[in-house]
Amino acid sequence: MPTPEMRTSPWIEVRNSPIHGKGVFAAKRIPKGTRVIEYLGDRISHKAADERYKDHDENDNHTFLFIVDKRTVIDAGVGGNDARFINHSCDGNCTSVIEQRRVFIESTREIPKGEELGYDYEIGREKDDPDDVDEIFACRCGSPKCRGTMLYPAERPARKPAKKKTKGKKAGKSAKKKPARKPADKPAKKPAKKPVKRPSTRPKRRAKGGRGR
Predict the structure, then answer these.
(1) Cis check: omega of the bond before 153, within 30 degrees of 0
(2) Selection from 90, 105, 92 nearest residue 39 by Cα
(3) Is residue 177 part of a domain?
């Protein structure tokens, strides 16, 4: 029999956060290993998520999207609960657990009353990320182990330099140049159409979270 939805939780309360916007805080002492709350929202495909947020501002790092698997994303911006207000932390006191295609937030240590909850979003990097992507997704969790970004991995992969193509024969051997042939007359080409500018379709970032079961 499936576990009922954990839409609310007696363990937490939502209020303004010193890290970012609203945050989730322990309403009482939370023992280690406690299943605090379920991450709920509209369950949609990755394609539907891309379409829903195709016009979002690329400089906005705010996301309520959570990856369940390669087919499903939870959009807590639609029908979500208080779990969506848990902020990112590089060294959080919680972790996300995916169990039977549901996402739960569990404590990884004892959390005293009044402490803010946080877990690592592990937001993935993309091949065409702009140069300032780490500034856009800067982390302000304040942990001594803060990696400075919500993106994962912490270091941006180095781009491989393009290989140069060598023309002609090997060095040390001289080759005689053949006289250039006069190109044949070709019919005039029609002027190329100017490309139409379209809005950015970069997918809105998703949190990957922690471990699966």
Answers:
(1) yes
(2) 105
(3) no
pLDDT tens by residue, 90-110 = 999 999 999 999 999 999 999
User: Between these two residues, 190 and 75, which has the higher pLDDT value?
Assistant: 75
How many structural domains is the chain composed of? 1
- Specify if 208 maps to a domain: yes
Residue 2 included in any domain: no
Q: How confident is the model at residue 173 (pLDDT cuts 50, 70, 90)?
A: very low
Q: Where are the alpha helices (DSSP H) in 55-144?
A: 133-136
3-state class (DSSP) for residue 168: coil
Residue 79 — left, alpha, or beta (φ > 0 → left; ψ -120 to 50 → alpha)?
Answer: left
Q: What percent of the chain has pLDDT over 90?
A: 52
**Is residue 62 domain-resident?**
yes
Give CA–CA dist 93/18, Å, rounded.
Answer: 16
